[in-house]
């Protein structure tokens, strides 16, 4: 009997999901591994699949989109948060991140937060690249698409780590939450949160006194 791997696809675009399924079928035929695939289209669906697998099964590979609708409770803002949970729950899991955000700031943060087995920028993808990437990760190696490799060469210029708290801070500011209200939703004091905001503005070279420039930059780079 051929070996079997449990795969979770987390992606909100149906056509993209179809591409992943096609690639998995091709890899299955080529290397003789069966893929048992589950699909989640948003954070809440993904959390449900993770919880089910945690109690009675496993997840071996996740194909993870970064830009996803946030969970209803607001504790998972994007695929990056799901990736952190997947690695915490399933220590052996291999994660392939597929994202439309190819800028060095975003890829650097994804690498530091998740250290995925694969990081692919969607604009780099062809079916051949996707198939080769899945094969490579299944075999135990890592795979990065061309844009990610180019970003590695610029790493020192963009070596700033936007962590989970920074992303939640940006998200709350984008909703209009006031700085004085933030400690009720983020477990830090106002002084620490203000320090984080000022550091991000300094690193990203945002000179305006308000938050508009910071939030525009964060949206452009895919942090919110």
TrEMBL record:
The keyword Phosphoprotein applies. The modification 4-aspartylphosphate is found at residue 65. GO terms for biological process: phosphorelay signal transduction system. Keywords: Phosphoprotein. InterPro entries: CheY-like_superfamily (IPR011006), Sig_transdc_resp-reg_receiver (IPR001789). It comes from Seonamhaeicola aphaedonensis. This is Response regulator receiver domain-containing protein. Residues 6-137 form the Response regulatory domain.
